[in-house]
Amino acid sequence: MKSKKIFILIPDGVGLRNFAFTSFVEIGKKNGWDIIFWNQTPFDLKALGFKEIKISGKPRAITDLYKRAKINTELNYFSEKFKDPVFQEYKFINKGSGLKNAFKNILVKQFTDSFSRGKGLQRLQTKLQNSERGNDLYNDCKNTLIEQNPDFVFCTNQRPIKALAPLLAAKDLEIPTATFIFSWDNLPKATMVVNADHYFVWSGYMKNELLKYYPQIQNSQIKITGTPQFEVHFLEKTKIEKEKFYQDFNLESKRQYLCYSGDDITTAPHDELYLLHTAKAVSRMNSEGYNLGIIFRRSPVDLSKRYDSVLAEFEDIIVPIEPLWVKISDGWDAILPTRKDLKLQSNIIQHTFMVVNVASSMVFDYISYGKPCAYINYNPEEIEWIKDTRSIYRYVHFKSMPSRNSALWINEVGEIESVIKTGLEGDNSEVLGNAKKWFEIINEHPVSNANERIWNAIEEII
Fold it and tell me: Which residue among 34, 130, 329, 444 is buried most deeply as judged by most CB within 10 Å?
């Protein structure tokens, strides 16, 4: 019997993490699929033993302007339709200098204004989808599809404009397509750039969001699969014993560690101050007889030096463990994850008693191990702050939280010590129970079966 052939479109590192570094390929091969990664990243998947076809070429410049205008127009529409100004906070302002950037910003504003009335948004969406047809990238993708003749094209991320041409070529050749909605916060942010025949989502909650924000998508087009990104936490083979982990990273054998998980500079521009405050709190606790340390894991895409002075001042308390991502070329999108980093992150969670951060999805990684997350919810007093950290928790994706007591909250700098003590030795049963419910709301369970559900959905479509 002839194998079924699938193209896995990888426009960025998110697709690598979820589909190249998990059990996805292994399960697909067992199901009789010939799997080819259609790779738009500089990562060499052949080195991992996978089949790949590289995609070169760039989208048209006008496509990016249409995308930016579409996002702004959709956010305006969401604000008006749902009577919620929070959607305006998702807008990204291009702060680049020079005449070229100024001209681009003017065009985006003109597109946004021109297509904001009546059926304008629909026309703008059509312009975006069709803007890549006929360019070199589209033609190359179409020729590859004609030559390879896959049975299915699966896009691993709905956001990048690079994915438009490959999916458009597949649709024009009547090859079934699907896209994966890669993050729990994506849909309210108007990040749906590609169109596909089918949409794979994390949960029933996300399915309802998709129908809410994009009513042109039919119920039958949506498959609830969960996400593979948490799979690593449920694999015994990735776990490292405490003694070895402590030795590998020169940790003090009798010391207990919390994790400070850094955020990107856009989400948390004052993150280095929060690390400083946390280190000072731990230092005071140690002077009272505790023996605590901090494992600092920065955001993998934050290569700035903003934490350096804090790490130097508190080198006796903070142990930085760098994410095992690789910088293959210039540009933020060329900093790519590795399989080793999934294992590293999971073992940091295993060997710390809690995580402290600003509003990240690490709450779900930690509840996978039955451990609490503390959210920072105050603004630093020692500077004129750039962004109100508290505003992040008003974002739409936090409305999925079943109870505010799904995390520990640090509402002012003076609460850090008491929250750490609660995370270390308090009764966290209510917080952990609510966090588990929250995880079940936003991601289909059992968590470890996500890849199987994705393959089952593909089989159903075929």
Answer: 444
Q: How far apart are CA 103 and CA 167, in angstroms?
A: 29
Contact present, 349 and 213 (Cβ < 8 Å): no
* CA–CA distance, 240 with 344 (Å, rounded to integer): 9
What phi, psi does 153 have (nearest 5°)?
-120, 120
Pairing of β 335-336 and β 326-327: antiparallel
Q: Which domain CATH number covers 217? A: 3.40.50.2000
- For the chain, give me the number of helices (H) and strands (E)? 16, 15
pLDDT in tens, 293-306: 999 999 998 999 99
Copy the structure tokens of residue 446. 């059992």
Closest C-alpha to 212, from 89, 77, 118, 120: 77
Look at the block and give the residue holding tokens 């991320």.
157
How does pLDDT run across 314-332, given as a tens digit for each residue? 999 999 999 999 887 665 5
Query: Which pLDDT does position 332 carry in this prediction?
Result: 52
From residue 365, give the alpha-carbon distance in Å to each of 54, 223, 337.
32, 23, 17
- In a shared domain, residues 314 and 426: yes
Whether residue 139 sits in one domain with residue 125? no
Judged on CB neighbours under 10 Å (0-12, 13-18, 19+), 290 is middle
Torsion from C-alpha of 193, 168, 443, 344, nearest 10 degrees? -90
- Condensed to tens digits (0 to 9), the pLDDT of residues 171-224 reads 999 999 999 999 999 999 999 999 999 999 999 999 999 999 999 999 999 999
* Same-domain check for residues 355 and 367: yes
How does DSSP classify residue 20?
A: I
pTM value surpassing 0.85: yes
Q: How far apart are CA 168 and CA 134, in angstroms?
A: 10
